[in-house]
Write a structure and sequence with these properties.
Elements: H1 3-15, H2 20-37, H3 46-58, H4 63-82, H5 109-120, H6 125-140, H7 144-148, E1 155-156, E2 161-165, E3 171-175, H8 178-190, H9 218-232, H10 241-254, H11 259-266, H12 271-274, H13 276-292, H14 294-301
Antiparallel strand pairs: 1-2, 2-3
Helix pairs in contact: 1-2, 2-4, 5-6, 5-9, 6-8, 6-9, 6-10, 10-13
Length: 302
Protein backbone atom coordinates (compact mmCIF):
# COMPACT_ATOMS: atom_id res chain seq x y z
CA UNK A 1 0.00 0.00 0.00
CA UNK A 2 1.31 3.47 -0.87
CA UNK A 3 2.09 5.89 1.94
CA UNK A 4 -0.36 8.40 0.42
CA UNK A 5 -3.19 5.88 0.65
CA UNK A 6 -2.28 5.05 4.26
CA UNK A 7 -2.37 8.75 5.15
CA UNK A 8 -5.75 9.14 3.41
CA UNK A 9 -7.28 6.19 5.26
CA UNK A 10 -5.90 7.46 8.58
CA UNK A 11 -7.38 10.89 7.87
CA UNK A 12 -10.92 9.73 7.06
CA UNK A 13 -10.83 7.31 9.98
CA UNK A 14 -9.80 10.00 12.48
CA UNK A 15 -11.59 13.07 11.11
CA UNK A 16 -14.66 11.67 9.37
CA UNK A 17 -15.28 8.80 11.78
CA UNK A 18 -16.13 6.29 9.05
CA UNK A 19 -16.84 2.69 10.03
CA UNK A 20 -14.32 -0.12 9.59
CA UNK A 21 -16.49 -1.59 6.84
CA UNK A 22 -16.44 1.70 4.91
CA UNK A 23 -12.71 2.06 5.49
CA UNK A 24 -12.08 -1.43 4.12
CA UNK A 25 -14.27 -0.73 1.08
CA UNK A 26 -12.36 2.50 0.34
CA UNK A 27 -9.05 0.67 0.63
CA UNK A 28 -10.15 -2.15 -1.70
CA UNK A 29 -11.60 0.22 -4.30
CA UNK A 30 -8.59 2.55 -4.40
CA UNK A 31 -6.09 -0.32 -4.45
CA UNK A 32 -8.02 -1.87 -7.35
CA UNK A 33 -7.76 1.40 -9.26
CA UNK A 34 -4.06 1.92 -8.50
CA UNK A 35 -3.33 -1.65 -9.54
CA UNK A 36 -5.27 -1.12 -12.77
CA UNK A 37 -3.46 2.08 -13.73
CA UNK A 38 -0.12 0.67 -12.48
CA UNK A 39 1.30 4.08 -11.61
CA UNK A 40 1.88 6.14 -8.49
CA UNK A 41 -0.96 8.23 -6.96
CA UNK A 42 0.64 11.48 -8.14
CA UNK A 43 0.27 10.27 -11.73
CA UNK A 44 -3.51 9.81 -11.66
CA UNK A 45 -5.06 11.43 -14.72
CA UNK A 46 -8.52 11.92 -16.15
CA UNK A 47 -7.68 9.38 -18.85
CA UNK A 48 -6.69 6.72 -16.32
CA UNK A 49 -9.92 7.21 -14.35
CA UNK A 50 -11.99 7.08 -17.56
CA UNK A 51 -10.19 3.91 -18.60
CA UNK A 52 -10.94 2.39 -15.19
CA UNK A 53 -14.65 3.24 -15.50
CA UNK A 54 -14.71 1.62 -18.96
CA UNK A 55 -12.90 -1.43 -17.58
CA UNK A 56 -15.50 -1.83 -14.81
CA UNK A 57 -18.36 -1.44 -17.29
CA UNK A 58 -16.79 -3.99 -19.65
CA UNK A 59 -16.58 -6.39 -16.71
CA UNK A 60 -20.32 -5.82 -16.12
CA UNK A 61 -19.98 -4.23 -12.69
CA UNK A 62 -23.29 -2.77 -11.53
CA UNK A 63 -23.68 0.99 -11.96
CA UNK A 64 -24.11 1.31 -8.19
CA UNK A 65 -20.76 -0.44 -7.61
CA UNK A 66 -18.98 1.72 -10.21
CA UNK A 67 -20.36 4.87 -8.55
CA UNK A 68 -19.12 3.70 -5.15
CA UNK A 69 -15.61 3.01 -6.48
CA UNK A 70 -15.40 6.38 -8.23
CA UNK A 71 -16.64 8.09 -5.06
CA UNK A 72 -13.72 6.52 -3.17
CA UNK A 73 -11.26 7.61 -5.87
CA UNK A 74 -12.73 11.13 -5.86
CA UNK A 75 -12.20 11.41 -2.11
CA UNK A 76 -8.64 10.11 -2.47
CA UNK A 77 -7.84 12.61 -5.24
CA UNK A 78 -9.25 15.48 -3.18
CA UNK A 79 -6.92 14.46 -0.36
CA UNK A 80 -3.95 14.25 -2.76
CA UNK A 81 -4.64 17.79 -3.99
CA UNK A 82 -4.91 19.11 -0.41
CA UNK A 83 -1.56 17.47 0.37
CA UNK A 84 -0.07 18.91 -2.86
CA UNK A 85 0.72 15.41 -4.11
CA UNK A 86 -1.56 15.88 -7.11
CA UNK A 87 -1.82 19.17 -9.00
CA UNK A 88 -5.13 18.92 -10.85
CA UNK A 89 -8.46 17.22 -10.19
CA UNK A 90 -8.69 14.32 -12.68
CA UNK A 91 -12.41 13.65 -12.12
CA UNK A 92 -14.46 16.74 -13.09
CA UNK A 93 -15.48 15.41 -16.51
CA UNK A 94 -15.84 11.72 -15.65
CA UNK A 95 -19.16 10.31 -16.91
CA UNK A 96 -20.55 7.54 -14.75
CA UNK A 97 -22.91 4.84 -16.03
CA UNK A 98 -26.55 5.66 -15.40
CA UNK A 99 -27.97 3.91 -12.37
CA UNK A 100 -31.28 2.30 -13.16
CA UNK A 101 -33.90 2.69 -10.50
CA UNK A 102 -35.07 -0.79 -9.52
CA UNK A 103 -38.76 -1.50 -9.95
CA UNK A 104 -40.63 -1.98 -6.67
CA UNK A 105 -41.32 -5.53 -5.56
CA UNK A 106 -44.96 -6.38 -5.00
CA UNK A 107 -47.26 -9.24 -4.00
CA UNK A 108 -50.49 -10.24 -5.68
CA UNK A 109 -53.81 -10.64 -3.88
CA UNK A 110 -53.38 -14.42 -3.54
CA UNK A 111 -50.04 -14.03 -1.78
CA UNK A 112 -51.51 -11.42 0.56
CA UNK A 113 -54.30 -13.86 1.41
CA UNK A 114 -51.75 -16.63 2.07
CA UNK A 115 -49.95 -14.39 4.57
CA UNK A 116 -53.24 -13.45 6.21
CA UNK A 117 -54.48 -17.03 6.53
CA UNK A 118 -51.13 -18.12 7.96
CA UNK A 119 -51.44 -15.34 10.55
CA UNK A 120 -54.92 -16.53 11.51
CA UNK A 121 -53.65 -20.09 12.00
CA UNK A 122 -51.42 -18.96 14.89
CA UNK A 123 -52.59 -19.26 18.46
CA UNK A 124 -50.51 -16.21 19.38
CA UNK A 125 -52.73 -13.15 18.96
CA UNK A 126 -49.69 -11.06 18.00
CA UNK A 127 -49.69 -12.83 14.65
CA UNK A 128 -53.42 -12.27 14.24
CA UNK A 129 -52.68 -8.57 14.76
CA UNK A 130 -49.94 -8.82 12.12
CA UNK A 131 -52.46 -10.40 9.75
CA UNK A 132 -54.81 -7.47 10.23
CA UNK A 133 -52.02 -4.97 9.51
CA UNK A 134 -51.13 -6.89 6.34
CA UNK A 135 -54.73 -6.58 5.17
CA UNK A 136 -54.91 -2.94 6.22
CA UNK A 137 -51.72 -1.91 4.42
CA UNK A 138 -52.67 -3.82 1.28
CA UNK A 139 -56.12 -2.20 1.32
CA UNK A 140 -54.94 1.34 2.06
CA UNK A 141 -51.32 1.86 0.98
CA UNK A 142 -50.38 3.11 4.44
CA UNK A 143 -46.69 3.48 5.25
CA UNK A 144 -45.67 1.13 8.06
CA UNK A 145 -44.80 4.17 10.20
CA UNK A 146 -48.36 5.41 9.69
CA UNK A 147 -49.98 2.03 10.35
CA UNK A 148 -48.28 1.13 13.64
CA UNK A 149 -49.05 4.48 15.30
CA UNK A 150 -52.51 5.00 13.80
CA UNK A 151 -54.83 6.67 16.35
CA UNK A 152 -58.19 5.07 17.03
CA UNK A 153 -59.78 8.45 16.37
CA UNK A 154 -58.42 8.45 12.80
CA UNK A 155 -60.90 5.76 11.72
CA UNK A 156 -64.43 6.65 10.68
CA UNK A 157 -66.18 3.31 10.36
CA UNK A 158 -69.44 4.78 9.09
CA UNK A 159 -67.73 6.54 6.20
CA UNK A 160 -65.17 3.73 5.82
CA UNK A 161 -62.30 6.16 5.79
CA UNK A 162 -59.07 6.82 7.67
CA UNK A 163 -57.52 10.23 8.23
CA UNK A 164 -53.75 9.91 8.00
CA UNK A 165 -51.11 12.45 8.97
CA UNK A 166 -48.14 11.52 6.81
CA UNK A 167 -44.77 12.98 5.85
CA UNK A 168 -44.42 16.68 6.49
CA UNK A 169 -47.50 16.53 8.75
CA UNK A 170 -49.67 16.49 5.64
CA UNK A 171 -53.15 15.08 6.09
CA UNK A 172 -54.85 12.79 3.61
CA UNK A 173 -58.03 10.71 3.54
CA UNK A 174 -57.87 7.00 2.72
CA UNK A 175 -60.95 4.93 1.97
CA UNK A 176 -61.15 1.28 3.02
CA UNK A 177 -63.31 -1.56 1.74
CA UNK A 178 -66.07 -3.34 3.68
CA UNK A 179 -63.91 -6.35 4.54
CA UNK A 180 -61.10 -4.26 6.03
CA UNK A 181 -63.58 -2.10 7.92
CA UNK A 182 -65.19 -5.22 9.42
CA UNK A 183 -61.82 -6.69 10.38
CA UNK A 184 -60.84 -3.46 12.12
CA UNK A 185 -64.11 -3.36 14.08
CA UNK A 186 -63.67 -6.99 15.14
CA UNK A 187 -60.11 -6.32 16.32
CA UNK A 188 -61.15 -3.22 18.27
CA UNK A 189 -64.08 -4.95 19.95
CA UNK A 190 -62.56 -8.36 20.66
CA UNK A 191 -58.75 -8.38 20.54
CA UNK A 192 -57.25 -4.93 21.04
CA UNK A 193 -57.69 -4.91 24.84
CA UNK A 194 -55.24 -7.83 25.11
CA UNK A 195 -52.44 -5.48 24.06
CA UNK A 196 -53.24 -2.79 26.64
CA UNK A 197 -50.85 -2.47 29.58
CA UNK A 198 -52.71 -3.16 32.84
CA UNK A 199 -55.97 -2.56 30.95
CA UNK A 200 -55.10 1.12 30.66
CA UNK A 201 -56.55 3.23 27.89
CA UNK A 202 -54.56 4.02 24.77
CA UNK A 203 -55.07 6.41 21.89
CA UNK A 204 -53.48 3.97 19.43
CA UNK A 205 -55.21 1.36 17.30
CA UNK A 206 -52.29 -1.00 17.93
CA UNK A 207 -51.16 -0.40 21.53
CA UNK A 208 -48.13 -2.10 23.06
CA UNK A 209 -47.46 -3.22 26.62
CA UNK A 210 -43.68 -2.94 26.26
CA UNK A 211 -42.76 -0.28 23.69
CA UNK A 212 -41.84 3.11 25.14
CA UNK A 213 -43.84 4.77 22.35
CA UNK A 214 -47.00 3.10 23.63
CA UNK A 215 -47.75 1.54 20.25
CA UNK A 216 -46.57 -1.41 18.19
CA UNK A 217 -43.11 -0.83 16.73
CA UNK A 218 -42.09 -1.21 13.11
CA UNK A 219 -39.39 -3.71 14.10
CA UNK A 220 -41.88 -6.01 15.82
CA UNK A 221 -44.21 -5.99 12.84
CA UNK A 222 -41.27 -6.51 10.47
CA UNK A 223 -40.17 -9.64 12.35
CA UNK A 224 -43.70 -11.05 12.48
CA UNK A 225 -44.16 -10.39 8.76
CA UNK A 226 -40.89 -12.12 7.83
CA UNK A 227 -41.84 -15.20 9.86
CA UNK A 228 -45.25 -15.37 8.20
CA UNK A 229 -43.55 -15.15 4.79
CA UNK A 230 -41.30 -18.11 5.61
CA UNK A 231 -44.23 -20.14 6.91
CA UNK A 232 -46.28 -19.28 3.81
CA UNK A 233 -43.53 -20.43 1.45
CA UNK A 234 -42.97 -16.93 0.08
CA UNK A 235 -39.27 -15.97 -0.18
CA UNK A 236 -38.77 -13.58 2.76
CA UNK A 237 -36.61 -11.19 0.71
CA UNK A 238 -39.72 -10.48 -1.38
CA UNK A 239 -41.77 -9.48 1.66
CA UNK A 240 -41.45 -6.32 3.75
CA UNK A 241 -43.79 -3.63 5.07
CA UNK A 242 -42.88 -1.39 2.14
CA UNK A 243 -43.66 -4.21 -0.30
CA UNK A 244 -47.21 -4.23 1.10
CA UNK A 245 -47.50 -0.54 0.20
CA UNK A 246 -46.04 -1.22 -3.25
CA UNK A 247 -48.54 -4.05 -3.66
CA UNK A 248 -51.46 -1.72 -2.94
CA UNK A 249 -50.33 0.73 -5.63
CA UNK A 250 -49.31 -1.85 -8.23
CA UNK A 251 -52.52 -3.84 -7.98
CA UNK A 252 -54.60 -0.67 -8.33
CA UNK A 253 -52.73 0.49 -11.43
CA UNK A 254 -52.79 -3.00 -12.93
CA UNK A 255 -56.57 -2.75 -12.62
CA UNK A 256 -56.53 0.62 -14.43
CA UNK A 257 -56.92 2.94 -11.44
CA UNK A 258 -56.33 6.62 -12.15
CA UNK A 259 -52.70 7.59 -11.46
CA UNK A 260 -53.66 10.86 -9.75
CA UNK A 261 -55.98 9.01 -7.37
CA UNK A 262 -53.23 6.55 -6.47
CA UNK A 263 -50.86 9.48 -5.90
CA UNK A 264 -53.29 11.05 -3.43
CA UNK A 265 -53.89 7.78 -1.58
CA UNK A 266 -50.15 7.14 -1.24
CA UNK A 267 -49.48 10.71 -0.14
CA UNK A 268 -46.82 11.30 -2.80
CA UNK A 269 -45.76 14.92 -3.21
CA UNK A 270 -44.91 14.49 -6.90
CA UNK A 271 -46.69 12.28 -9.42
CA UNK A 272 -43.29 11.22 -10.80
CA UNK A 273 -42.85 9.17 -7.62
CA UNK A 274 -46.10 7.34 -8.36
CA UNK A 275 -45.24 6.83 -12.02
CA UNK A 276 -42.72 4.10 -11.21
CA UNK A 277 -45.70 1.78 -10.73
CA UNK A 278 -46.71 2.34 -14.34
CA UNK A 279 -43.34 0.87 -15.35
CA UNK A 280 -44.39 -2.39 -13.72
CA UNK A 281 -47.61 -2.30 -15.72
CA UNK A 282 -45.64 -1.64 -18.90
CA UNK A 283 -43.44 -4.64 -18.15
CA UNK A 284 -46.56 -6.74 -17.60
CA UNK A 285 -47.78 -5.70 -21.07
CA UNK A 286 -44.40 -6.55 -22.62
CA UNK A 287 -44.36 -9.96 -20.92
CA UNK A 288 -47.90 -10.62 -22.11
CA UNK A 289 -46.95 -9.84 -25.71
CA UNK A 290 -44.00 -12.22 -25.63
CA UNK A 291 -45.81 -14.96 -23.75
CA UNK A 292 -49.38 -14.78 -25.09
CA UNK A 293 -49.22 -13.45 -28.64
CA UNK A 294 -49.71 -16.28 -31.18
CA UNK A 295 -46.70 -15.17 -33.24
CA UNK A 296 -44.50 -15.22 -30.14
CA UNK A 297 -45.80 -18.67 -29.20
CA UNK A 298 -45.15 -19.87 -32.72
CA UNK A 299 -41.55 -18.72 -32.56
CA UNK A 300 -41.00 -20.49 -29.26
CA UNK A 301 -42.63 -23.67 -30.53
CA UNK A 302 -40.31 -24.00 -33.54
Amino acid sequence: MSSALELFLDKISAQDGVSMATLSAYERDILQFLSFQNTAPEQITSDSVSAFVKHLSDKHFAAKTVSRKISAIRGFCKFLIEEKILKNNPLPDITLPKREKPLPKFLNASQIEELYQKALSHQNIAFKRAGLIIKLMFASGLRVSEAVCLPLSAINHNKKQITVVGKGSKERIIFINDQTNTLLLDFINNTRSSFLKNKQTSAFLFPSKTASSGHLTRDTFFKDLKLLAVESGIPPHLVSPHVLRHSFATNLINHEADLRSVQKMLGHEAITTTEIYTHITHQKIIDSVFEKHPLARGLHEK
